[in-house]
Design brief:
- With 218 residues, this protein is α+β, with helices and mostly antiparallel strands.
- The protein is built from four helices and seven strands, in the order αβββαβαβαββ.
Length: 218
C-alpha cells in the first residue's frame, strides 16, 4: 500500500513538473518571437517554399552573380504574410517558388545603372525598392510536382507582356495570374502594374532602405 502511495506521489510530481516545463516553453517562444520589423530568414520559419534565387546566380538580367549567397531574408511580418499565402496555395495543390527577397541597396544601384526605368527598377534614391526594405518578394507558383504554372513570360521580362493589364495571352495564363494575385491579396500583399511576379506587403510600419549583409554570419 505504501509503495502504491509513493508511486502515485511520484507520478503526480512528474506531471506537475512536465506541465511547468510546457508553460515555460510556451512563454519562452512568445518572448523570442521576432518583432515584425526584424529581418529574418524565411527558411527558418517554413520549409514549404521552393527557392530559385536568381541574383545569387548568373541567370538574371544583370548577367552576373550579385548576391554572395542564396538566402531569402525578409522583414518578419512579410514572412508571416508569405506563410499565410503559401498555406492557402497548398490547400489548392500549389506552392510558392521565390526568385528574390530582401535586396541590399548597393545591388539596387547596379540594377538602376543597367535599367534606369522606374516601371521595372525602383530608383535607389529616397525609399528605393520595397525589396530594399524587406517587404517585397518576386515569385511564381508551382505544382506539388515542381512544375511552374504558365505566367506568359519568364521572371524579369521587362516588357508589356508581363504587365497585369496585358490581355493578349492564352486564357490559362490570365487565369494563372489572377489566381496568384487573388491569393496574394488575401494574404495582405499588393502587386505592381508592370510585373506579374512582384508583390509587396501592405503595412503601417515604416521601413528604411537597408544595406546590411545578406548572408548568415559564419
Amino acid at each position: 500500500m505504501i509503495r502504491k502511495i509513493l508511486l502515485a506521489i511520484v507520478i503526480v510530481v512528474a506531471l506537475l513538473a512536465w506541465n511547468r516545463h510546457k508553460q515555460n516553453v510556451s512563454k519562452g517562444s512568445k518572448l523570442t518571437e521576432p518583432a515584425d520589423a526584424s529581418y529574418v530568414y524565411l527558411e527558418d520559419f517554413s520549409k514549404e517554399f521552393v527557392f530559385d534565387l536568381r541574383y545569387a546566380t548568373e541567370n538574371n538580367f544583370l548577367k552576373k552573380k550579385v548576391y554572395p549567397c542564396a538566402e531569402c531574408m525578409l522583414a518578419y511580418e512579410t514572412v508571416k504574410g508569405l506563410i499565410k499565402a503559401n498555406d492557402l496555395f497548398v490547400i489548392k495543390g500549389y506552392k510558392i517558388k521565390i526568385f528574390d527577397c530582401y535586396r541590399p541597396r548597393f545591388v539596387q544601384y547596379k540594377m538602376w545603372e543597367i535599367l534606369p526605368d522606374s516601371r521595372y527598377v525602383a530608383n535607389p534614391e529616397g525609399k528605393g525598392s520595397a525589396h530594399n526594405r524587406g517587404l517585397a518578394v518576386d515569385l511564381t507558383l508551382i505544382t506539388m510536382n515542381g512544375k511552374e504554372l504558365d505566367m506568359g513570360t519568364g521572371f524579369d521580362h521587362f516588357g508589356e507582356e508581363a504587365h497585369h493589364a496585358y490581355t493578349d495571352l492564352p486564357d490559362t495564363v490570365i487565369q494563372n495570374r489572377m489566381f496568384l494575385k487573388t491569393i496574394m491579396r488575401d494574404a495582405g500583399f499588393n502587386p505592381i502594374k508592370t510585373e506579374w511576379w512582384h508583390y509587396y506587403l501592405i503595412t503601417d510600419n515604416e521601413y528604411e532602405p537597408a544595406d546590411f549583409p545578406l548572408c548568415r554570419e559564419e
